[in-house]
Each structure stands twice: as C-alpha cells, then as structure tokens.
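Question: Send over one sample?
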Amino acid sequence: MTGSDAAGRLDDDDFPAYTMGRAAELIGTTPAFLRALGEARLIEPLRSVGGHRRYSRYQLRIAARARDLVDEGMAIEAACKIVILQDQLAEAQRINEEMRGTASQESDLPPG
C-alpha cells in the first residue's frame, strides 16, 4: 500500500478503522452497547482477519445518534428503529426534492 492509498483510507467515512474498544470510547459508551446495536441490526461492523469487530466513522455517527436516544430514556430497540426511520425519511425527502427539481426543469422547457 502506498502512502496515498493509506491517506485515502483515512478520509473514507466507510473504512473500518476503529476497534470495538476505541469505537466505544469515542462515542462514550461500552462495547456491550455496540454489540447490542449490531444485534438490533442498526450497524453491522466489518470483521478483521482475526474476527474482531471494526467500525467506520459513518457507523460511529449512527451509533452516537442511537446512544443519544437511549440516554434520553428510550429502549435500545426503539432507538435503533427511530434512527432507521429518520434515515429513510431523509432519503425519501432527498429523492422528492430531486424529482421536484427535475419536474421543474422539464416544465421550463418550451413545448415541442
């Protein structure tokens, strides 16, 4: 691997750079919490060659959102479902806006 390849991985939000212990530390929780998120199918960590869980920055952002909801008193399963639904809603809104933009551009064209 060249230096530029390594630098590219450091910028990649999806690169599984963090061990379970480090990931838990970064988001202020426990490894058991991260395992519970995996069991609830909110995040699925990649596995190292030795079978250890590895998390990406993207996964840690999702885990932190779930942790915030749990800290507010929500059950972990409910928190995971809310995060999933929030992401689905955001994606649907993005698609809707994209379609509106396309429809608006088409209506600006002269008939013909």
